[in-house]
Amino acid sequence: MTCDAVQNRLLALPDLRRVPDELRGHLDGCPACRAFLARAARLDGLLAAVPVPPPSDEAKAALLDRVAEAGPIIRHVPVVPRRDSTAVRLAALLARNGRWRYAAAVAAAVLVLVGGWLAFHGSGPRDGSRVAGVRHELLRKVVAGDVELAKARTPQRRMEIWTGLTADLGDEIDQVHKYVQDEDLMKALAGYFDKAAEKGLLAQAQLARDKAPAADWQKAFKAALQTVSQVETATAASLQTAPQGKKPHLLHIRDTARRVRAELTKLDPALAGAPPGKGA
Amino acid sequence: MARTALTLTLFAGLSLWASAQGPLVADEVHLLTANRLLLDQLIDRGLGMSEVKRGDDPLARAEECRQAAAALADALRAAAGGRDPDPERVAELSDHIADMVNGGLVPNLTEADQTIPHSSKEQRERLKELSKQAKADLTELGNAFPTSGALGRSARVAEARQKLAGAGGRINVPQD
Predict the structure, then answer these.
(1) Is residue B176 part of a domain?
(2) Residues of chain B contacting residue A199, judged by C-beta atoms under 8 Å apart
(3) What distance in Å separates the CA atoms of residue B93 and residue B95, rounded to the nearest whole number?
(4) How many domains does chain B contain in total?
(5) Which of A50, A95, A172, B135 is 20 to 30 Å apart from B103, CA to CA?
(6) Which ipTM value was assigned to this complex?
């Protein structure tokens, strides 16, 4: 053991009068370290003799105020991971093996799978079907349609409103049918479409046919025909890829759209571009 | 290195896309589920307003509007009640009720009041009864709002309550 090491250990002792045996052996053969111990012991004695003023509450408060004046002394306490923690061990392992890239790719893949699962299967009702902060656009459109119908005074105007609602429902069915798991909900959507297209749009078109001014009729008729044709085409396309459970409802919607288109065409074959007497 | 960066970018992009697309459609399905019955009732009320005889009768149209508002009010009570009330849905449905009353019910009641002759006692009585009933519906609905908890603290709900009170104030009960 060198003299420096011995002297450092002497300074670290809580009581210089009690020197451990392993240091004592060195001290017995080393006059320099014995002299160092004597000086240190003397200094200890002198320090112990220095008078210390009694603690005062005011002085303590003043000191704390002075310290606190400049704001918190420790602004951020860093959290040092335990060296034996799982995360540290895993990070070290990945870094050592150069596998962090694969770990990141696996994490991203998990995110994709979770997102995909939410998109395709996470559509069941949750906690009373609440969707925080999201308003239902279709509900808004149906309410607005009812308000407009309450103001409408002619079959042609009502026909236009039902055409809009039929288009909205067709869009809704096209947008959500892949994600609807509940068969009753698909049935309900098909029911809404039936009512809007057949009892609403077609019924008002039949009333408007002979009452509306020609120019207004042409405009309303073309919009109605285009709307049901679009729903028919979109639903027919959806049928190609739809699972078996949804096909009956999509077929029903397509058939309703087809039937309404045929009936509309009968109302005004010339305007529909069909030969007289040919409905569909 | 470039291949790794490309792979990570692709996965991250797919993650973002899945996160952005999925919830929107899922939310729509949840909303459809929540509003399934309400949508059906509202479409039926619209058909009622479009019927040949009722379409030309302001009193009949007003009755359909009141029933549409009542269907919305039932949904609102469900959203406001229970252990976990939903302030945003309460506000949404209140807006719809106010729209239905202000845009559909009140104009038709006014038209009925102006067009039904005072000699038509039965029609006038129907108009008076319907107006009173619609006004009472809105007052009762406003009183049903909790004044404490999440709904009581919500500024949106307070605004919605005022809208309903305003809509109720626009309903004029004929005094003849």
Answers:
(1) no
(2) 47
(3) 5
(4) 1
(5) A172
(6) 0.87
Query: With an 8 Å Cβ cutoff, are B17 and A115 in contact?
Result: yes
CB contact under 8 A, A143 and B72: yes
CA distance B138 to B98: 9
A244 DSSP assignment: G
Please report whether residue B150 resides in a domain.
yes
Diameter over CA atoms, chain B: 91
Nearest to B165 by CA among B147, B144, B146, B139: B139
Q: Is the pLDDT of residue B90 over 50?
A: yes
pLDDT, position A212: 86
**CATH classification for the domain delimited by A137-272, as one of 1.20.120, 1.10.287, 2.160.20, 3.30.1490:** 1.20.120
What is the interface size between A and B, counted as CB pairs within 8 Å? 190
For residue A182, list chain B residues with Cβ-Cβ distance below 8 A. 33
Q: Using the beta-carbon criterion (under 8 Å), do B89 and A130 form an inter-chain contact?
A: yes
User: How confident is the model at residue B37, as a pLDDT?
Assistant: 97
Cα–Cα dist B150/B80, whole Å: 10
Let me know the angle formed at the C-alpha of B102 by B100 and B105, rounded to the nearest 5 degrees.
Answer: 65
pTM reported for the whole predicted model: 0.68
Q: Alpha helix locations (H) across chain A? A: 3-12, 21-29, 31-49, 57-69, 86-97, 100-121, 137-151, 155-176, 183-194, 203-208, 214-241, 247-267, 269-272
Q: Between B87-100 and B58-80, two packed helices, what is the crossing angle to 10 degrees?
A: 170
Sites in chain A below the pLDDT cut of 50: 120-129, 277-280
> Left, alpha or beta for A74 (phi > 0: left; psi -120 to 50: alpha)?
beta
